[in-house]
Design a protein that fits this description.
- It is a single chain.
- By secondary structure, the chain is an alpha+beta fold.
- It is built from one helix and three strands, in the order E-E-E-H.
- The protein has a three-stranded antiparallel β-sheet, with no helix packed on it.
Length: 67
């Protein structure tokens, strides 16, 4: 399981990250459990906006196959 984004020039996809969460709070619907913040934007976009670099804590979800 890769620990980095599939396309390094595009950055990580939060929807494929283990740390990504939905908060169900309309003003900040997305959260990053690893960094401990909530945001209106996807966490990876918020990190890029604030830090100028792609998220370094991306950890790909494990693929589960239902039989």
């Amino acid at each position: 399981m890769p620990a980095v984004a599939d396309q390094p020039n595009r950055g990580p996809n939060c929807w494929q990250c283990r740390h990504f969460a939905i908060t169900h709070i309309p003003s900040s619907p997305y959260a990053c459990r690893s960094m401990g913040f909530q945001s209106r934007l996807l966490p990876s976009l918020e990190v890029l906006r604030v830090d100028g670099q792609f998220c370094r804590l991306f950890l790909a979800k494990e693929i589960t196959i239902k039989a």
